[in-house]
Amino acid sequence: MTDLTRLTAAETAAAVASGETSAVDVAQAHLDRIGAIDEKVHAFLHVDTEGALSAARAVDDRRAKGEKLGPLAGVPLALKDIFATKGIPTTVGSKILEGWIPPYDATVTKRLKDAGIVILGKTNMDEFAMGSSTENSAYGPTGNPWDLTRIPGGSGGGSSAALASYQAPLAIGTDTGGSIRQPAAVTGTVGVKPTYGGVSRYGMVAFSSSLDQGGPCARTVLDAALLHEAIAGHDPLDSTSIDAPVPAVVEAARNGNVKGMRIGVVKEFGGEGYQAGVMQRFNESVELLRELGAEIVEISCPSFTLALPAYYLIAPSEASSNLARFDAMRYGLRVGDDGTKSAEEVTALTREAGFGDEVKRRIILGTYALSSGYYDAYYGSAQKVRTLITRDFETAFGRVDVLVSPTTPTTAFPIGERVDDPMAMYLADLCTIPSNLAGNAAMSIPCGLAPEDGLPVGLQIIAPAMADDRLYRVGAAVEAALTGRWGHPLLEEAPAL
After folding, report:
1. Considering 94, 179, 200, 317, which one is annotated as catalytic?
2. 496 to each of 12, 146, 165, 195, 491, how far by Cα in Å?
3. Does 80 participate in catalysis according to the annotation?
4. What confidence tier does 400 reach under pLDDT thresholds 50, 70, 90?
5. Active-site hit among 22, 132, 137, 155
6. Which of 3, 10, 23, 491 measures 20 to 30 Å from 426, CA to CA?
7. pLDDT band per the 50, 70, 90 thresholds, residue 330
8. Measuring CA to CA, how many Å separate 471 from each of 42, 57, 495?
9. Is 155 a catalytic residue?
10. CATH of domain 4-303+387-493
């Protein structure tokens, strides 16, 4: 049989369901792959060998009894270390939660288990999801499988790297300002930010509550759709969860067709600061959509130019509130508790030791923006810009079915290049942030390699809220056309590790 780690999730599920292979064999193949290469990649923070094999055996037992299996039963998955997992560590990439073992499962974790998906372990990430490179992890950076000296994106670089290095066929990420889509773009994988409220945030450690959204990561559009369907849907434990049917994402992914669709090209996403090769591959993708029967319309969204500063006031403000719970009193790290210091001193020492530089920077920025005398000037103004961005989207979607843009202005940059330049780091999310501010749905799919450096480029597709199926319709059409043009999936061009 073909190397089990090279199968798509859909192929793996079919092989397990038919008895062609067992879920245990699939899980073991991926655990062996992790053991062989993850020391170089550092995609995982924790590998749950015992739990993965136990879950796989349960799937095989169900199949042996003739029980009907779900569409992804027996398929391994890499879970971003921001979701609570009962009995195994959840650190959120931070020293302040080092060793914390949750007593419960996040809703996403529970739905994965209920679907028979085998969780291999927890993936590396920028601390508290604050970053665009995974260099802000307290446990060291992850390498991009295309070039281990370059970043795999962030904050979910561990999940994207696990996919691109064939350590898992599926992964889960979270997207606050682009942390699913940007890693997907720079690793040549597929990443989807569902409509805000489409996937439960219960048990997902909060960074910025009005922006955070969990979503699927995969190597194909269909695999992403199958995972999307497994984790999405209303959850009464999440007050922001949408009580409505999940869009027909799997059907759209199986029947991708853009003929007759109106597709808008965002005028503001291009020009100075965009790598020439990124724009070349993006423009080729737009022409491909035209060839596939779509009508291309140029769309101007002027407020998008204000999205980055608005985001970096709103997100840190919410973070300064959310992270106040890490006070050394209830759980996590505790420093200086020798009986001679006050609770306030212990809290201060713990936060000094437990939070990294980027987390401290955003807490300080957010606290300042919310402070008396500055609230209206900063946080209040940013929320007004957010409204303008939402209106720009509404106007655009009155004219077109979806919008497209490059996912990122550049390909993966070298590890260490932007560590001392926060503004340069923040610019990696220039194209992705507007969708988080508006709460609509967006996807990144690979659209080729940049000629300058041979690294992956992502095409971003943006759809209205609760029209997530449009993402998969367009993504599947482009994926099929490009795979046919290349003669193979893009990831086959990645260097073997």
Report:
1. 179
2. 21, 8, 8, 35, 10
3. yes
4. very high
5. 155
6. 491
7. confident
8. 31, 35, 29
9. yes
10. 3.90.1300.10
